[in-house]
Amino acid sequence: MNNFNKDTIKEIIVNGRVDILNLYAESLAKDYAPQDEKEKRTKLTTSQIRNILDNVQRMDEGAIEKGEHELLRPKLAYIAGRSDKSNAAIRELREILDFALQQIKNDYKKFENFRNFLEAIVGYHRFYSKVKD
Question: What's the CA gap between 11 and 20, in Å, rounded?
Fold first, then answer.
């Protein structure tokens, strides 16, 4: 794996680069999508990332101005901590999303870029995963 690229994440979150967002999200999803039941232990299930997406989709501009999106960081750590210790995919995704969340500050436009990025990862993951939750 090792898909963590700070410059790419900054381009997506800070500069709103949709072209890069699509390429990066698709690349991550391909790497993280399990192809058989055995890979479910080392890759991501849709429910693991849907959990975070549901929280993100409920946040509005007021929540971002108050910094409530920062509360997603410990939730990501909890999900990663609960997973199998050999699951590098969930740990890497936590690292990527944690860094992305730090780029938002209290800027709603940057949060929208983050939400779009996460939605793209989930969408591509669903497309490439051969295993259903």
Answer: 7
CA dist., res. 11 & res. 113, Å (int): 10
Condensed to tens digits (0 to 9), the pLDDT of residues 55-79 reads 999 999 999 999 999 999 999 888 8
Q: Is 49 exposed, middle or buried (0-12, 13-18, 19+ CB in 10 A)?
A: buried
Q: Which residue has the tokens 């590098």?
A: 88
Q: What are phi and psi of 67, to 5 degrees?
A: 80, 20
Tokens of 47: 């429910």
Cβ burial of 86 (10 Å; 0-12, 13-18, 19+) is exposed
Q: Which of 39, 46, 49 is nearest to 96 (CA)?
A: 49
**Nearest-angstrom CA–CA distance, 79 and 48:** 7
